[in-house]
Amino acid sequence: MAALTSTARMFRFDTARWRRMATTSTLAGAGLVVSGTYVLLAFDRFGIQGFVEARATARLLLTGLYGWLGLAVASWLVARLAWQQRPPFELVMRLFGHAHVPLLVVAVAIQFLSVGLRLSGVVLWPALFAVLVWMPVQLLTAAEVSFSLEKPRAALTVLGPYVAWMVIVGRLLETQFGHLL
């Protein structure tokens, strides 16, 4: 319960809470956030029968996990090369995994509230907010804490990797979720 409370407080983009998360979170917890997001999306996409078929579900899950890894590696490399910061890679993975919480919220809304991703509907707006505003700010705060950078440098550190993540993972998910649009 304490982990859920701490994660909920991170929604406020409180750097102090992210610093606490840096010392108390685990890589397994971050992995659960990321994999839980994509498992819920896979369940919604393929239904119960398609979800049980391992190939499509595994492909979607691997897209999310590789996207998380790529985002963390690229940001870690930018911080290392541009700002000469050398944080432990595991810390970056943990915090960037927890920065996926906005996507988990969207996945839960899609699954349990029967929310669709129709472009013409107002229902899509929270999903767009989560992907275009909420998650980048979470990543900014995670980078600020993990790389010990001020906000402008943290923003520059995650900007390129986040745009690449959106293009690559978004393109892969578009092929998976084309029927919803």
SSE run: HHHHHHHH
Strands, count: 0
Can you tell me the overall shape? elongated
* Rg, alpha carbons: 16 Å
* Class by SSE composition: mainly alpha
Terminal CA distance reads: 36 Å
Please give a structural write-up.
This protein is elongated. The chain has 181 residues and is mainly alpha-helical. It has helices at residues 2-10, 15-24, 27-52, 54-83, 89-98, 101-112, 124-147, 151-177. It has 8 helices and no strands.
Write a brief caption for the model:
The chain is mainly α. It is 82% helix and 0% strand.
Main attributes of the structure:
181 residues; mainly alpha; 8 helices; 82% helix; elongated; disordered C terminus
Would you spell out the secondary-structure blueprint of this structure?
Layout: H1 2-10, H2 15-24, H3 27-52, H4 54-83, H5 89-98, H6 101-112, H7 124-147, H8 151-177
Helix pairs in contact: 1-2, 2-7, 3-4, 3-5, 3-6, 4-5, 4-8, 5-7, 6-7, 7-8
